[in-house]
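Regression test case RT-17, inverse folding.

Input:
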């Protein structure tokens, strides 16, 4: 018989059952949004196996770590506090009894290398395990992407902080995963460069190459040659006021980057692209266009003078001071587009630069044209344009960094409507920037010679970080994946779905990215 009481029972019993299920029956199931975050990590992890449940980061959570991983734990806490508003104290301990915690431990699994990590998310807590500090740091970077996009917000967001349960085991395929920022054509402040470092580290990139000098500007204080910045530091493309980094500010930047496992590679472009130095010290000049402050965008008109002893004192002094500011083993000495340098002089210059770098304890990197000189296995060549030079460099024993301009010169426009950028190499849409393989890009190049990938951002058309972001995002994320993820795990069809899911993260970071019509945002 259908009574009022029965009607109530019909309505209430399912409601009670639902509440019971949600409140006290076993682990909760991951919602589609939470599962999607687990499936959408960029760069794609080497292995990620979901377990179907949920861990919720709550206000009582602690970050527990052994001594070895304290720096990684503290960095993660700093990244998670602003949006959650949680205290997230970092506590040294073994975390064996902990619940509601993120626990860092040191792994004895040497196959993880320096940069690999294991991340396991269970319904009671999270564990990050790595054999070295960089790996622990990258485990934390992945954890950020498992949380809702709002975790990247700079102010408190009231919402549940849920992550899908599962296990990730991850390590990179290439050692060198970088980007170059041209701070010479237009100057970028230290704060802008620090933000650039944050972006690289977010995608597990570990190299920031700074193009510190060019025809239009000299950006690093050299105490023994003060006019380089007094004169050469005050110009840029278009006639703006330029700028430069004091050695103190630069050292602070290097330390900032080191904390995020990003190595800064300083580049002084020699023997061409040198007009700003010649305009500062005309006594260095002997041929080519008479040195005056230059704010245009032509290339290939300036050169150092091989006949002058002063030239080599200048290079030695500059490398000496830069080497002292550089904890890493590399220094980049340019070598590209030296059209105003006679070929014999060019070859002699590169040999001399190699010796000077070595004298100051550094490995020389040069753009691929250095392959014409007597380089060897102690040098690194950066491929940008000529497969022939890249192959020649490898045949001489040099390691090669892959920066093909038709793929990863992110100063190239996406298409003819792009508001910034050039297109002398190509228009590069997001899929074209992703769809290539560093191991096959230059046919015949021995796999063992490929050190990694680097995406240069030249700054003829961009004057600040906002403008840079339009060209960088989202292509930077794809280049990071090319460097990190094993080539056979990558596909554009899978990547574009993850990239679309990633859009709200870039938005939460305040990045105004290019909304390519080839990505299903
Ligand atoms: C370059 O694009 N000139 C290395």
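Golden output:
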């Amino acid at each position: 018989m259908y009574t009022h009481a029965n009607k109530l029972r019909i309505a209430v019993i399912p409601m009670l059952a639902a509440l019971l299920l949600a409140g006290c029956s076993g682990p909760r199931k991951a919602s589609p949004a939470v599962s999607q975050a687990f499936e959408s990590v960029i760069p794609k992890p080497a292995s990620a196996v979901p377990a179907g449940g949920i861990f919720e980061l709550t206000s009582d959570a602690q970050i527990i770590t052994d001594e070895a991983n304290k720096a990684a734990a503290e960095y993660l806490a700093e990244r998670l506090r602003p949006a959650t508003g949680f205290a997230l104290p970092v506590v040294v301990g073994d975390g064996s009894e902990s619940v509601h915690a993120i626990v860092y431990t040191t792994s004895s699994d040497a196959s993880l290398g320096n940069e690999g990590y294991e991340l396991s998310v269970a319904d009671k807590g999270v564990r990050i395990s790595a054999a070295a500090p960089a790996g622990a740091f990258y485990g934390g970077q992945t954890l950020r992407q498992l949380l809702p996009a709002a975790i990247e917000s700079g102010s408190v967001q009231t919402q549940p902080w849920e992550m899908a349960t599962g296990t990730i085991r991850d390590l990179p395929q290439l050692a060198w995963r970088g980007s170059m920022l041209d701070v010479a054509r237009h100057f970028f402040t230290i704060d802008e460069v620090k933000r650039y470092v944050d972006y690289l580290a977010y995608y597990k990139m570990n190299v920031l190459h700074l193009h510190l000098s060019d025809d239009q500007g000299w950006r690093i204080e050299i105490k023994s040659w003060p006019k380089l910045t007094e004169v050469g530091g005050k110009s840029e493309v278009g006639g703006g006021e330029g700028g430069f980094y004091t050695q103190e500010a630069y050292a602070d930047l290097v330390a900032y980057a080191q904390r995020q496992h990003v190595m800064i590679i300083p580049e002084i472009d020699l023997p061409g692209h040198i007009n700003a130095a010649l305009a500062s010290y005309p006594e260095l000049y002997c041929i080519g266009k008479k040195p005056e402050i230059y704010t245009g965008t032509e290339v290939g008109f300036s050169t150092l003078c091989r006949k002058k002893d002063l030239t080599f004192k200048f290079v030695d002094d500059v490398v000496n001071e830069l080497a002292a500011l550089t904890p890493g083993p590399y220094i980049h000495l340019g070598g590209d587009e030296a059209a105003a340098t006679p070929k014999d002089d060019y070859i002699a210059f590169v040999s001399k630069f190699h010796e000077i770098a070595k004298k100051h304890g550094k490995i020389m990197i040069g753009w691929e044209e250095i392959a014409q000189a007597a380089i060897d296995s102690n040098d690194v060549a950066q491929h940008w344009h000529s497969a022939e030079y890249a192959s020649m460099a490898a045949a001489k024993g040099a390691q090669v960094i892959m920066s093909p301009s038709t793929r990863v010169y992110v100063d190239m426009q996406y298409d003819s409507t792009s508001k910034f950028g050039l297109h002398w190499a190509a228009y590069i849409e997001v899929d074209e920037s992703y769809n290539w393989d560093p191991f096959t890009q230059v046919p015949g190049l021995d796999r063992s010679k490929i050190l990694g990938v680097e995406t240069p951002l030249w700054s003829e058309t961009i004057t600040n970080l906002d403008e840079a972001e339009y060209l960088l995002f989202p292509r930077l994320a794809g280049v990071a994946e090319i460097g990190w993820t094993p080539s056979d795990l990558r596909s554009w069809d899978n990547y574009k779905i993850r990239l679309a899911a990633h859009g709200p993260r870039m938005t939460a970071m305040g990045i105004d990215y290019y909304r390519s019509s080839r990505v299903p945002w």
